[in-house]
């Protein structure tokens, strides 16, 4: 009990000083592993991955490569191996180790353990067999496996995972990079939120924190992009984008339909106001979709992506809405768009603010990839970056 309390205090201490503070950015991984009693011998992982054979490689991100392996007891695992020369990856790697150490939920990828061997540092996860959502959703030859019920289950499962992180875990955790490539699907198509390299602990009794901007093009809330104001409502915004992408099979960041709209959110909102919201639905869903349920999810997606963060629902409210039959819900206001400013309503002006109008961030975004894929990012200015990635400077 004392060890758990000490471990939690260390997590909170790390959050208070910030992960980019050179003096406090790391906990010793070996000590974390010992405290949590999740130690894997290095030779066990060498044997499981066939000495980290290229044929077992699942992907690679800023941290380094990830390999598929199989333990002697038959369990399949994914092993994240830190690259020796990756400074940015080291920060994310240590951050993920700290935050996932005590997280246990059906809709969050399970960290099985750690390994420290000389200069080698590794994290060991459950293996998730159906890869990441984006590999299925945005490829026309594979999206047929995602009929409507399966997509709705992914929406509800992801919502429950976010609710757990925001309200039911040991501390409030803001993921900061909810997107299709960070939703993994197991053999039963259960969604699991992955990649906590950029996640942050959130202090109690605060409406928001100011932080350098880190996230992925198309998923970041406007108050976060423009001012670095981070709250749980930033995750809610990203989740709303994910809902609309699941329904339309269109990437918000690469929206190129020949319609009068800036992006997917703008298109969905304009059609919703005309009573034609179902027109954003992927035509391949026509035979399997429950139209009332689809319409409800579109409305929820628009509520989650409203420009004013005070008007966005918290995840508990979202889970409640998804669990009920379609009925009366609030009317969504205009969605937040990169570089746009929202007009505060009288109702929300009376509440404590989660987004201000000062402190313009000069930081760049960083796209942390899950262990299956990576996506392009933009700078924290309203203009998109045609060259893709720009690493966040700490």
TrEMBL record:
Domain of life per record: Eukaryota
Record flagged with keyword Kinase: yes
GO molecular function, one term: ATP binding
Pfam families with a match to the protein in the record: PK_Tyr_Ser-Thr (PF07714)
SUPFAM superfamilies, A to Z: Protein kinase-like (PK-like) (SSF56112)
Gene3D superfamilies (alphabetical): Phosphorylase Kinase, domain 1, Transferase(Phosphotransferase) domain 1
Protein keywords: ATP-binding, Kinase, Nucleotide-binding, Receptor, Transferase
Protein name, per record: Receptor-like kinase
């Amino acid at each position: 009990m004392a060890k758990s309390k000490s471990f939690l205090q260390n997590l909170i201490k790390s959050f208070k000083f910030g992960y980019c503070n050179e003096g406090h950015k790391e906990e010793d991984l070996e000590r974390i592993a010992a405290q949590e009693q999740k130690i894997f011998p290095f030779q066990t992982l060498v044997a499981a991955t066939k000495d980290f054979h290229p044929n077992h490689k699942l992907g690679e991100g800023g941290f380094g490569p990830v390999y598929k392996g199989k333990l002697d007891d038959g369990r399949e695992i994914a092993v994240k191996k830190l690259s020796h020369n990756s400074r940015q990856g080291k920060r994310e790697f240590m951050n993920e180790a700290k935050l996932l150490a005590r997280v246990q939920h059906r809709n969050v990828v399970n960290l099985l353990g750690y390994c420290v061997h000389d200069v080698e540092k590794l994290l060991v996860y459950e293996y998730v067999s159906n890869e990441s959502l984006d590999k299925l959703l945005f490829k026309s030859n594979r999206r047929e496996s995602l009929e409507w019920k399966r997509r709705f289950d992914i929406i509800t499962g992801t919502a429950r995972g976010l609710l757990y992180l925001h309200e039911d875990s040991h501390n409030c955790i803001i993921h900061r990079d909810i997107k299709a490539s960070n939703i993994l699907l197991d053999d039963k198509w259960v969604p699991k939120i992955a990649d906590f390299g950029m996640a942050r602990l959130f202090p109690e009794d605060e409406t928001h924190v100011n932080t350098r901007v880190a996230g992925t093009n198309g998923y970041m809330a406007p108050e976060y992009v423009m001012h670095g104001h981070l709250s749980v409502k930033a995750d809610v915004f990203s989740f709303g984008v994910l809902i609309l992408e699941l329904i339309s099979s269109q990437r918000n960041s690469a929206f190129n339909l020949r319609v009068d709209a800036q992006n997917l959110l703008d298109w969905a909102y304009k059609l919703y106001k005309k009573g034609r919201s179902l027109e954003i639905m992927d035509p391949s869903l026509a035979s399997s979709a429950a139209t009332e349920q689809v319409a409800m999810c579109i409305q929820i997606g628009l509520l989650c992506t409203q420009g004013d963060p005070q008007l966005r629902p918290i995840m508990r409210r979202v889970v409640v809405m998804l669990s009920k039959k379609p009925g009366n819900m609030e009317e969504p206001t205009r969605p937040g768009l990169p570089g746009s400013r929202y007009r505060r309503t009288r109702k929300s002006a009376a509440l404590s603010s989660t987004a201000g109008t000062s402190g313009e961030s000069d930081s760049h975004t960083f796209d942390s990839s899950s262990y299956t894929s990576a996506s392009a990012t933009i700078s924290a200015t309203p203009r998109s970056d045609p060259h893709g990635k720009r690493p966040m400077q700490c």
